[in-house]
């Protein structure tokens, strides 16, 4: 039975799951819905009123990073010890912190406060987090955790693409190790194929997931 992933017509936090499925050679139907009428019709039918939702092996799953962790275990990308698993989870949590502290401000109504917040995001908040990840890459042989490819690397790739797309700037311009990491992970089997065929995000996309 082909798996089904339902999410909005955007990358956002649906893409880590899409990339994990593609990397794992798990065939899936990529169901993308609109944020208006489509979502309002679907929402009351769900166990939990948010997306993404993965239907796989006769079961329905919610919560992005719980799904990612499940798929990562199946693919051998969740570390080889409890300590490595903890380090991966901590890295993913930090990536999500960066996302929350920057993207939500972008979609505030236009105001002087918004302009100040965006300036802080681009000049202070994002560089702070990227410096943390740059150091991790230096300490882990070009990967974020344990000197090897894990699902944290996939989350980093997708969130960097997402944030850069929203702010319309390459947030990695001054971070050479992260740029090398982005290129390396983008070329992996399954991931490369998905990135080449995935639809572009719409201009008006907004984070509906926090």
Automatic annotation (TrEMBL):
One Pfam entry name: GST_C_3
Class in the EC hierarchy, top level: transferase
PANTHER family from the UniProt entry: GLUTATHIONE S-TRANSFERASE, HEMATOPOIETIC PROSTAGLANDIN D SYNTHASE
Stretches assigned to the GST N-terminal domain: 1-79
Keyword Aminoacyl-tRNA synthetase listed: no
Superkingdom of the source species: Eukaryota
GO biological process, one term: glutathione metabolic process
Protein EC: 2.5.1.18
Keyword set includes Transferase: yes
Family according to the record: Belongs to the GST superfamily. Sigma family.
Domain GST C-terminal: 81-208
Swiss-Prot/TrEMBL keywords: Transferase
Protein name, UniProt field: glutathione transferase
Classification of source organism: Eukaryota, Metazoa, Ecdysozoa, Arthropoda, Hexapoda
Coiled-coil positions: none
Catalytic activity: RX + glutathione = an S-substituted glutathione + a halide anion + H(+)
Molecular function GO labels: glutathione transferase activity
Signal peptide interval: none
């Amino acid at each position: 039975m082909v798996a089904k992933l339902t999410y909005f017509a955007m990358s956002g936090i649906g893409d880590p799951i899409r990339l994990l499925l593609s990397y794992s050679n798990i065939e899936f139907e990529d169901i993308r819905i609109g944020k208006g009428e489509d979502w309002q019709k679907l929402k009351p039918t769900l166990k939990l009123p948010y997306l993404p939702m993965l239907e796989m092996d006769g079961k329905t799953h919610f919560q992005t990073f719980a799904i990612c962790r499940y798929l990562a275990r199946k693919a051998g990308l969740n570390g080889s010890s409890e300590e490595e698993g903890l380090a991966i989870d901590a890295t993913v949590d930090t990536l999500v912190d960066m996302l929350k502290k920057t993207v939500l401000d972008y979609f505030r109504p236009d105001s002087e406060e918004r302009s100040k917040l965006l300036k802080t995001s681009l000049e202070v908040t994002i560089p702070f987090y990227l410096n943390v990840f740059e150091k991790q890459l230096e300490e882990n042989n070009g990967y974020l955790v344990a000197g090897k490819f894990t699902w944290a690397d996939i989350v980093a790739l997708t969130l960097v693409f997402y944030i850069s797309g929203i702010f319309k700037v390459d947030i990695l311009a001054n971070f050479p190790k992260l740029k090398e990491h982005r290129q390396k992970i983008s070329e992996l089997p399954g991931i490369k194929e998905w990135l080449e065929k995935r639809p572009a995000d719409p201009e008006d996309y907004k984070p509906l997931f926090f």
